[in-house]
Specification:
Helix 1 runs antiparallel to helix 2 and helix 6 packs antiparallel against helix 7. The protein has a three-stranded antiparallel sheet with strand order 4-3-5, with helices on one face. The chain has a two-stranded antiparallel sheet with strand order 1-2. Strands 6-7 form a two-stranded antiparallel ribbon. The radius of gyration is 21 Å and the shape is globular. Helix content is 44%, strand content 8%. It is built from nine helices and seven strands. By secondary structure, it is mainly alpha-helical.
């Protein structure tokens, strides 16, 4: 899970999203706004809608690697994901900053799962709406899920690239807000519970290590800048960029990385 750099949405798409959002916001009650959000998003998010063609194009550019899911960084991203679920936050249904590109394997289980930290005492409340129950507004509070559009997940998450390739919290205090947010994000997105993701991160580590070693060999052998630039772009274009970020962050505690980055300090800027 990496921070997303906004690629910028075209003005016409921003305007159209605002028009859609206005139709929701104009509904007089919260339950009506929830119904309208679900209905309007379903009818708008089509392959023929010019605004959503633009939305998906821009979200694709923000992916980790070619069309990789913004959450797991592994599977193909093919769904416009609401970070704040539209069933709970209809006022964010057509807000550009509430979108990321996700795979169905991440988006499906996440669905409407969401939690907030109460402003009064900081306790976590998971939002639950039973079938056929009244459609009530969510409890006020700060989001627990780490928001990759507005935050750097690696401020909260630590990926163990020397052993387990599991995500953990950066904060050792399990009662801290940062730790609660990290553990909730790991759980709700299944970042550690899917064994193939762990295997993919291990493979990505080996690939990045090999690519960097190959770059150093070719640079020292006198490869031209065009060749080197292509190798750099290949590293920057690999999926599981969190692994690469952690390799740079943990270079001083993993001997093989210390040697590689000492030979190629410029790689720390890639």
């Amino acid at each position: 899970m990496i921070q997303l750099i906004d690629s910028g949405l075209e003005d016409f798409a921003i305007s159209k999203l605002a028009d859609y959002q206005r139709l929701i916001d104009d509904k007089p009650t919260y339950p009506e706004r929830v119904v309208e959000a679900k209905k309007k998003f379903k009818s708008s998010n089509t392959t023929k809608n010019r605004a959503f063609i633009e939305v998906k194009k821009k979200l694709s550019l923000m992916c980790c690697g070619p069309d990789r899911c913004n959450y797991c960084e592994d599977s193909k991203a093919d769904e416009v994901e609401h970070i704040y679920p539209k069933d709970w936050y209809p006022e964010k249904c057509f807000i550009w900053l509430n979108y990321c590109y996700a795979c169905g394997t991440c988006n499906g289980p996440k669905n409407n799962k969401f939690a907030v930290l109460k402003r009064i005492d900081g306790t976590m409340v998971e939002l639950v709406r039973e079938k056929d129950s009244d459609v009530l507004e969510p409890e006020e509070g700060e989001t627990v899920l780490i928001n990759p559009r507005l935050e750097n997940p690696l401020d909260y998450l630590f990926l163990d690239i020397s052993n387990t390739f599991f995500f953990t919290s950066m904060d050792d205090d399990t009662t801290s807000e940062a730790s609660i947010r990290a553990e909730y994000t790991i759980k709700i997105l299944g970042l550690n519970s899917r064994s193939y993701l762990v295997k993919a991160r291990k493979l990505a580590f080996s690939n990045f290590e090999s690519r960097l070693s190959d770059y150093i060999t070719k640079r020292n052998a006198g490869a031209n800048q065009s060749q080197l630039d292509n190798m750099i772009e290949n590293i920057k274009g690999e999926h599981h960029q969190t692994v690469w970020s952690e390799m740079k962050r943990q270079k001083d505690i993993i001997p093989v990385l210390q040697d590689l980055f000492m030979d190629a300090p410029e790689a720390l800027l890639w």
